[in-house]
Amino acid sequence: MNTSTPFTNEAYALGDGSHYRIRPIQANDRERIIELFSHLSPESRYLRFAHAISKLPDEFLDDILHLDYKKELALLAAITSPAGTEEIIGIARYVTPPNRNTCEFSLSVSDSHTTHGIGTHLMMDLIEHAKKNGLQEMIGYVLSKNSRMLHLVSDLGFQIRSQDDDPDFKTVSLPL
Questions:
Q1: Does 3 fall in a domain?
Q2: Counted domains in the chain
Q3: What dihedral angle (degrees, nearest 10) is formed by the CA atoms of 173, 92, 130, 166?
Q4: Pairs from 41-48 (Cβ < 8 Å, separation ≥ 24)
Q5: 80-130 per-position pLDDT tens digit
Q6: Is residue 7 situated within a structural domain?
Q7: Alpha-carbon gap, residue 18 to 43, rounded angstroms
Q8: Element (H, E) at 64
Q9: Range of the domain at 18
Q10: What is the DSSP string of 102-147?
Q11: What confidence score (pLDDT) does residue 136 get?
Q12: Residue 6 resides in a domain
């Protein structure tokens, strides 16, 4: 990632009159990410990780908090309380396999904030940064029963294909 790439710090409205902002992940976000995960329902955890998990693995947290910005990016959607504490309500990430111009994305939004366009805004910013970093395609593997994610990526122009060898997943791809 070109770390000089400015983030607009644009505030997006939520239905309750509050606002959220999108920003890059920071090393001190660990506890807020764990808090986001703890507010995901078992179904949402399953849809995101493709299996039931009750705790974020430390390796996942370490990977997402210490990024190689040439190959990966993680963005957060966060709200700030009147008291000044920040709560992460969504996270989007891409990683790039070695020697490839393709990146793979992931996305999670807290259950209490899923209908406010947060996932769409996170994905649009993620796509924009992947393009700026010279990547040529963004892909994802989405559970076939995750209709909300399939609808979101379809709206963003991703092509959705069934996997012959695994009917539980769809492959989604977007030329950048």
A1: no
A2: 1
A3: -20
A4: 41/111, 44/108, 44/111, 46/143, 47/143, 47/145, 47/146, 47/149, 48/106, 48/107, 48/108
A5: 877 888 999 999 999 998 888 999 999 999 888 888 899 999 999 999 999
A6: no
A7: 26
A8: helix 58-65
A9: 12-175
A10: EEEEEEEE-GGGTTSSHHHHHHHHHHHHHHHTT--EEEEEEETT-H
A11: 95
A12: no
Residue 1, pLDDT score: 39
What is the rounded distance in angstroms from the CA atom of residue 38 to the CA atom of residue 54? 8
> What is the DSSP pairing of strand 137-143 with strand 169-175?
antiparallel
Q: What is the CATH number of the domain that holds 104?
A: 3.40.630.30
Q: Which amino acid is at 101?
A: N
Give the residue with greater pLDDT, 109 vs 58.
Answer: 109
Q: Is residue 45 part of a domain?
A: yes
Residue 64 CB: number of other CB atoms within 10 A? 19
Q: Residues 134, 95, 3, 19: is their CA dihedral positive or negative?
A: positive
Provide the whole-model pTM.
0.85
